[in-house]
Automatic annotation (TrEMBL):
Domain called NAD(P)-binding: residue spans: 5-330
Leading EC class: lyase
Cofactor(s) needed by this chain: NAD(+)
Catalytic activity as recorded in UniProt: dTDP-alpha-D-glucose = dTDP-4-dehydro-6-deoxy-alpha-D-glucose + H2O
Record-linked InterPro entries: dTDP_Gluc_deHydtase, NAD(P)-bd_dom, NAD(P)-bd_dom_sf
Keyword Lyase belongs to the record: yes
Cited Pfam families: GDP_Man_Dehyd
Species assigned in the record: Suilimivivens aceti
Record's keyword terms, sorted: Lyase, NAD
Top-level taxon of origin: Bacteria
Molecular function in Gene Ontology: dTDP-glucose 4,6-dehydratase activity
Protein name from the UniProt record: dTDP-glucose 4,6-dehydratase
Length: 360
């Protein structure tokens, strides 16, 4: 049985990845989920798998070398999938040092602990061990509105403390691959959306606010462009890179779905109107009149666009979920999990299982 160490597995993408892996492999794998349970970590995301014999949760900070070393010492880890990171740009502008601490130092701790556990006396590494560092397209900076794409060879040009900290963590992984021949890969992905996404992010924020008749804030002129990928497609890409990717390579993961922020908002409003029953009082609240333009974000990148040519050619991955279907699936999930959304927006989720995991 192969053992996976997943960092940040209680977060949005990490929890979706864990669900995907158990759906695909069931009892063929074991997953150890390490998460510090900051505001973005929510154990309710994993409530339906928490009692599996082949799943273990460990409450620990990736910056805690002693705790991470203990996880490696007590388990024969075959794969590391490193999601854990501070990821919200607005928060990084207010508290950049927190992002440097978690994203750069935390990644250094993860690399050092994996290296210590996997390295042989001659400097080589045990067979079939792999470390996957999950990163973002934001490390590449911004593209012009009239064309161009991010490739794996695109020079890094981060503009926010968040993207700078992720660029720093990418560089550390690259350095370990070059210096030690450390068995790793990097993936840089476009914007994700789907179940369990924390409602400070654009799509769940707009869904939640629209259903309550609250203002829908839009930065600047709303014409900033992002490439959107359904989160399960991302989970599949990560698994395929772990199994089929060439060691020491970087793979860009994109959705072929570029849309302006304001366009996303209009699509959500139209889809909500389509999906809500006529007798649902919330239908009357969903209106374009809620759209409110606000002062633009500092250092706001104008356009991101990923070219996933390499991962398609080498591994055979490509996005499967078109945005029209993905947004319907996402909205349907939020309809079915209103209690989850209520707990997250109220902060009650942070009390969930607090006593159970206090000593882990």
């Amino acid at each position: 049985m192969r053992t996976y160490l997943v960092t940040g597995g209680a977060g949005f993408i990490g929890s979706n990845y864990i669900h995907y892996m158990f759906k695909k492999y069931d009892k063929e794998i074991r997953i150890i989920n390490v998460d510090a349970l900051t505001y973005a970590g929510n154990l309710e995301n994993l409530k339906d798998i928490e009692k599996r014999d082949n799943y273990t949760f460990v409450k620990a900070d990736i910056c805690d070398k002693e705790a991470i070393s203990r996880v490696f010492a007590e388990n024969d880890i075959d794969r590391v999938v490193h999601f854990a990171a501070e990821s919200h740009v607005d928060r990084s502008i207010k508290h950049p040092e927190v992002f440097v601490q978690t994203n750069v130092l935390g990644t250094a701790v993860m690399l050092n602990c994996a290296k210590a556990a996997w390295e042989l006396p001659d400097g080589s590494f045990k067979a079939d061990k792999k470390f996957l560092h999950v990163s973002t397209d934001e490390v590449y900076g911004s593209l012009s509105e009239d064309g161009g794409y991010f490739y794996e060879t695109t020079p890094y040009a981060p503009h926010s403390p968040y993207s700078a900290s992720k660029a720093g963590s990418d560089m550390l992984v690259k350095a370990y691959m070059d210096t030690y021949h450390f068995p790793a890969n990097i993936t840089n992905c476009s914007n994700n959306y789907g179940p369990y996404q924390f409602p400070e992010k654009l799509i769940p924020l707009i869904i939640n606010n629209a259903l309550q008749g609250k203002k829908l804030p839009v930065y600047g002129d709303g014409r900033n462009v992002r490439d959107w990928l359904y989160v399960e497609d991302h989970a599949k890409a990560i698994d395929m890179v772990q199994e089929k990717g060439r060691l020491f390579e970087t793979y860009n993961v994109g959705g072929h779905n570029e849309k302006q922020n304001i366009e996303i908002i209009h699509i959500i409003l139209d889809t909500l109107q389509e999906m809500l029953p006529d007798d649902d009082p919330r239908k009357a609240l969903v209106s374009e009149d809620l759209i409110t333009y606000v002062e633009d974000r500092k250092g706001h990148d104008r356009r991101y666009a990923i070219a996933p040519d390499k991962i398609k050619a080498e591994i055979g991955w490509e996005p499967e979920t078109c945005f029209k279907d993905g947004i319907k699936k996402t909205i349907a999930w939020f309809f079915e999990h209103e209690e989850w959304l209520k707990n997250v927006t109220s902060g009650d989720y942070q009390k969930y299982y607090e006593d159970m995991y206090h000593t882990k």
